[in-house]
Write a structure and sequence with these properties.
With about 230 residues, this protein is an alpha/beta fold. It is built from 10 helices and 8 strands. Helices cover about 40% and strands about 15% of the residues. The strands form 2 sheets. A 6-stranded parallel sheet has the order 5-4-1-6-7-8, with helices on both faces. The chain has a two-stranded antiparallel sheet with strand order 2-3.
Length: about 230
């Protein structure tokens, strides 16, 4: 059993899709295009939502039943379309841009930890002008050899360690079971957020649960958002 995370944290790991950004429109549209190009039936939107978060090659295999060669073709089609259009068809969840900026202003080392490849992840953060808030940006490798969340978390911790960031009290923030299990593999507890794509059953595996960015801010030990002057 992992300890309940308590601030002050020595570093924070943040998931992207379903945690910082509502990326579902761009991902599901790109997936639909990919299935069309492969001449395969396009799953219903609710089914495509299951693809948001997990490593995409796992989903091509486990959710679409593709063999390795077909999955490689699908990945090439998906990536070209996603980098051209899909990566920008996303929005920041309410309050998350401000919260990321607040973490950086507090001087807490911050790493992205996403199963999305680093190039589109970086493009998204730059698009929302928050890339500079991250100490390191860690995602899947371009060749997908690093795509499992446990591997991404391991790489994020390695990069932070190389910068002499203390790792004695690290917390992960994410929305899916992959975030929770991937962080736990390295002894890192997770705060699950409910505004993403995970289920109540997934969130139940996390150490703590936040149902709003204000609640997450409090769990991270950050001061309350300043109220506008009357």
């Amino acid at each position: 059993m992992l300890p309940t995370p308590r601030p002050p944290f020595s570093a924070i790991l943040l998931d992207l899709d379903g945690t910082i950004t509502d990326s579902a429109p761009g991902i599901t549209d790109t997936l639909a295009y990919t299935f069309e190009q492969l001449g395969m039936p396009v799953p219903e939107y609710e089914q495509l939502l299951r693809w948001v978060g997990p490593p995409i090659m796992d989903s091509f295999r486990d959710l679409a039943g593709m063999d390795a060669a077909t999955a490689d073709r699908a990945l090439a089609i998906y990536r070209e379309r996603y980098l051209d259009r899909g990566a920008y068809d996303a929005t920041l969840f309410d309050g998350m841009g401000t919260l990321v900026q607040q973490i950086a202003a507090a001087g807490i080392p911050l790493s992205l930890a996403t199963s999305k490849p680093e190039l589109p992840a970086t493009l998204m953060l730059e698009h929302f002008t928050i890339a500079q808030c991250f100490t390191v940006i860690t995602g899947a490798s371009a060749d997908e050899t690093r795509s499992e969340k446990a591997d991404v978390v391991e790489e994020a911790l390695r990069r932070l360690r190389e910068l002499d960031v203390p790792l004695d009290n690290v917390v992960m923030v994410g929305d899916r079971i992959h975030d929770i299990e991937g962080a736990a593999a390295h002894g890192v507890p997770t705060i699950a957020v409910t505004w993403g794509y995970g289920s109540d059953a997934e969130h139940a595996e996390a150490a703590l649960v936040a149902s709003s960015t204000d609640e997450l801010r409090s769990l991270l030990g950050l001061p309350a958002k300043a109220r506008p002057a009357a």
